[in-house]
Structure formats: C-alpha cells, structure tokens
Write a structure and sequence with these properties.
elongated
Length: 181
C-alpha cells in the first residue's frame, strides 16, 4: 500500500468524484421561480389566509375574558398555517429593537396546537390595509417563544424606529409551518 499520496492529489481526486456525483445545476428560470415568495406562488391560498387574518379580532385589557399572563402590550393577531389546517392565535411581543435597519424581535404565541414548531416562516402584513411587508424566519428559543432577526428596508426601519413592545403594532403575522408547499 502506497501511503505517500500527497494530500493535494487526494483532495483533487475527491473533488472530481463529488463533481461526477452532483446533479446538474438548476437553470436561471428555475432559480428565479424558487426565489419567488409564497404569496406570489400561491395567490389564491394567500388571499384566503389574508382574509382570515384580517378578520381576527383580539380583545385588550378589560374586554379580555382570560388575560394573558405574559402579555406586555397589545397582542398581535397571528394565523398559524400548516399543510392541513389554519389556527388563529396571538403573539405577545417580549422584545422589539431596531438598530442599523435590523429588526430584533422576540414574541410568545398565546397558544399552539400540538408540539411547538422549531421554526416558522413569518410573513409580516401591514395593519391596517393588508399588504405584505416582508417575510423572515422565526426560530423557537423556548416553548412557544420565537425570535426574528431580519434586515428591514430603510422606509420600514425609519417608521418603526420609535416602536416599543407596549405600543399597538402596525402589523399582523402569518406563521407558516410547512414552507415547502
């Protein structure tokens, strides 16, 4: 057995093997199609979800039948969309900070059916006037507590700079559990 094979030669051999086994690169059109947001790919589903989200009414303060224990400010209406069902809930903001046009947000969902989802694809929709603002991943950090860290447009960063968690939020949330369709 020859043990004096240079590492560079071994790496070149492994690279050629990997290239031979790799699938062909996607075409530009396929890449553009994959980059489209879900609300453009499935416009009918989006309109249905948007109507349901717009109809969610959340009582605050004295009008609440069961006050949220963790609620700091106004709850944010949220709709969890899974492949088999949709579930209305609300999100209590725990932390909100905008620094250098980046949104740092932590929120806790009032209720979730079943096991907490490890990640959601969160679509922020303007309130009032349903319009998609942006979409970002939300990662579960604790039970039903999620964090979002995303870069905002200069326009949104400027408009939201003074927001505090106790303020009424200018958005509603669509939380998609199954992001592949």
């Amino acid at each position: 057995m020859n043990t004096k094979i240079p590492i560079a030669q071994l790496l070149r051999w492994r690279l050629s093997q990997a290239e031979a086994d790799a699938p062909p690169a996607p075409r530009a059109g396929q890449l553009l199609e994959l980059a489209r947001p879900w609300w453009e790919v499935w416009p009918q589903q989006f309109q249905s979800v948007l109507e349901r989200l717009s109809n969610i009414q959340i009582a605050c303060g004295h009008a609440m039948a069961e006050p949220l224990q963790t609620s700091v400010g106004h709850p944010v209406p949220a709709l969890i969309v899974r492949s088999v069902d949709e579930f209305e809930t609300s999100a209590s903001l725990l932390y909100l900070n905008i620094r250098d046009a980046r949104l740092h947000l932590r929120f806790q969902l009032a209720s979730v059916l079943g096991e907490p989802q490890p990640t959601f694809d969160v679509t922020f929709v303007s309130d009032p006037g349903p319009r998609v603002l942006f979409s970002a991943p939300a990662v579960c950090s604790m039970e039903s507590e999620y964090r979002v860290d995303v870069e905002l447009s200069e326009e949104l960063a400027g408009a939201w700079k003074q927001l505090k968690v106790t303020d009424r939020m200018p958005f509603r949330l669509i939380l998609r559990a199954d992001t592949n369709g």
